[in-house]
């Protein structure tokens, strides 16, 4: 499956600066299409991306977005200076005084997601289950963003974001750095409460780190310019809540890219990893745990197990918690998301005391994520820890873990 194709430019009239920017990028041939012929052009040309500029009718835009979203691999749809509400898969781009130089890096970042999608589709061509898993839900349902701020607009931003995706909040740039290094995130919202100098230093550090260069970043601090090597940087010039709406398609795109990355990891691991969580599948966990118990007895080494149980029957909460564990657990450890919604992690060569300390650190990170403004929608696991005793079987350890969990819950 080839990901090559032209860029379809839908505009009336076409801004000269936009044409020049796309031509100078030298990515693919750029083909102009009127609104009356764009549907036929998408079917015939199988474009790599579609760029819309100028006025449009909402009904026509919705039809184009629906047609594009049904295509595989992913086709980026970018709308410059939108004049009205956009469909959920349309990425907005605000030109600065009619300049489109920043459009090219944003388009390149989106095309990298398309290339990754094409690679995954090629490798799972014979696996219909994995193909279906890529489109099972809206990627935004499993996205988590970092909200940084301490100004008056922070509560409103927190509520607006929490209604749609997971939110990790912090009041300082130092706290933000810790979260960025410790967990998987899909975007950054930088609210008021910081000076332009502090914001400049933070954005400069992000632009110099390849891990965060393509992050969706929304800045609501006045006086900040877009002069950074950050293709998905958005500046809120008006209502911050409206700016959040404009940033969601970029966050969705990044969450989809993360989903593709986990799928590739699962493929490389021979299907032993769950592409939703990055943890072992239940069958692989059972096999590895039995082997770990056998070797621990044979070598006389320690082994402990932790169970994280959740009151919420919320798939988004469970997926986020599982990905936190997958990211933060030690390389020697392994875990799985059980069918009952609990997460079990095995700590190799670890006694009970150290296992408690590790489990507390994991649960502490989980509790810093919320999925709405309500306290009951925050991730708040009940943690139970057990250690391997002489003559214990794998089943005995897990059975004791479940019994201790029931006592802890009561």
TrEMBL record:
Taxonomic lineage of the native organism: Bacteria, Pseudomonadati, Pseudomonadota, Alphaproteobacteria, Hyphomicrobiales
Name of protein: GGDEF domain-containing protein
Highest taxon above the source species: Bacteria
